[in-house]
User: What shape does this take?
Amino acid sequence: MIQKRSLFIYFLFLAIGLSVQAQATQAETPPKSAWRLGGNIGLNFGNNSYFSFGISPNIGYQVSPKLLLGTSLGYAYQKSNYFKNNLFSGGPFLNYNLLQNVFTHAHLEYFNGTRKFYMDGLNKKKVNDEEAALWLGGGYRTNGRVGYQIGLMYNVLYNENKSIFNSPFNTFSGVIIAL
Assistant: This one.
């Protein structure tokens, strides 16, 4: 149930983002600065009082027409009847344009946080998490002063027995604004 809602919300934001970008492209003016501000916000609800919220702003600099270098910060909060998570992240990234709207993506990200598990409603188990991830992948981005991007990444440092993630794959989407 949680995955269906997540997928629905993901595609809803994709549709809204593409609609906003299409409208912005009609009166397009070229970016005046090489600085790019972007990021995403996520919200999710599910069974067992599940709730999650995430925010990850980023800033980048367009070094050349094909290369964007930047850094990101992130925070994610999850809570249900059985656990509560707080996770902070950050790290450098680069996007390299293969074609006009298609890019490759590399993001070295460090995660740090805590997880609390509720065993029988009273007993708690607290775990401190630390993990580095090297996300490699690519995606599609619209151009202009306001753009939208969507893509897929794979964590090459993923270890199934030690990772805080359920899978080495991760999707991303967000808005980019040329300053």
Remarks:
- The first helix runs from residue 2 to 26.
- Residues 10-30 have pLDDT under 50 and may be disordered.
- The radius of gyration is 18 Å.
